[in-house]
């Protein structure tokens, strides 16, 4: 029996999705007679060539980050390939994990609803999905926090293959709020006006040698 884990992050092996999948696949492989395979969509040169991996899989798990309320282009392209090869994925179990850096989960709800319909269109067995907010900090979490993540995702991996389902309630301790109250938005706007509030983004710009160009408007 095989779980096929599909990492739809453009950052591939440097992504938060990889960290999550590493624990999930470890949990799946701890179940007798189960093995896993992982596909990084950012490394795929021909999507059609990966159809063979889908054909031999028993369970398919797609995980990806949400960018500005949209799924990455490589994920959209992969879905198009699946729709054109329905006979290879029909009747297989499929689940989804949608993660994002921003804490609020309401950004991802519409994509979650889309995946429920997509599973039906592909004639797959939908085993569930989960929305995780505030995941960007997982790479900088403390040892204790990381162990908490690892234990949770490992158990989820076991559940996916042994029980054939994803229970969103299992993510309650880390999934973040559905939506912040309005006063939090006002507070956040105030903090972002402060120099310290911009420090994370400034560091990102400096790391990518783009700090001096941060105010440029090339399309005006």
Automatic annotation (TrEMBL):
It holds the Pfam family Flavodoxin_2. It comes from the Archaea. InterPro entries: Flavodoxin_fold, Flavoprotein-like_sf. SUPFAM superfamilies: Flavoproteins (SSF52218). Residues 1-103 form the Flavodoxin-like fold domain. This is Flavodoxin-like fold domain-containing protein. It comes from Candidatus Lokiarchaeum ossiferum. The lineage of its organism: Archaea, Promethearchaeati, Promethearchaeota, Promethearchaeia, Promethearchaeales.
């Amino acid at each position: 029996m095989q779980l096929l884990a599909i990492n739809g992050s453009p950052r591939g092996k440097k992504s938060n999705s990889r960290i999550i999948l590493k624990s999930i696949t470890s949990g799946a492989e701890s179940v007798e007679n189960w093995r896993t395979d992982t596909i990084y969509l950012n490394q795929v040169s021909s999507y059609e060539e990966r159809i063979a991996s889908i054909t031999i899989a028993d369970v398919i798990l797609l995980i990806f980050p949400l960018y500005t309320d949209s799924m990455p282009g490589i994920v959209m392209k992969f879905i198009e390939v699946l729709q054109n090869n329905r006979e290879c994925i029909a009747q297989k179990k499929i689940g989804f994990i949608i993660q994002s850096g921003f804490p609020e989960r309401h950004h991802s709800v519409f994509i979650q609803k889309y995946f429920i319909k997509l599973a039906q269109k592909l004639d797959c067995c939908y085993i569930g999905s989960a929305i995780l907010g505030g995941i960007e900090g997982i790479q900088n979490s403390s040892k204790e926090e990381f162990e908490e993540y690892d234990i949770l995702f490992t158990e989820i991996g076991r559940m996916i293959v042994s029980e054939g389902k994803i229970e969103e309630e299992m993510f309650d301790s880390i999934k973040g709020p559905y939506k912040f109250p309005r006063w939090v938005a006002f507070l956040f706007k105030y903090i972002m006006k402060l120099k310290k509030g911009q420090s994370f983004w400034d560091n990102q710009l400096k790391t990518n040698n783009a700090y001096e160009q941060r105010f440029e408007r090339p399309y005006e």
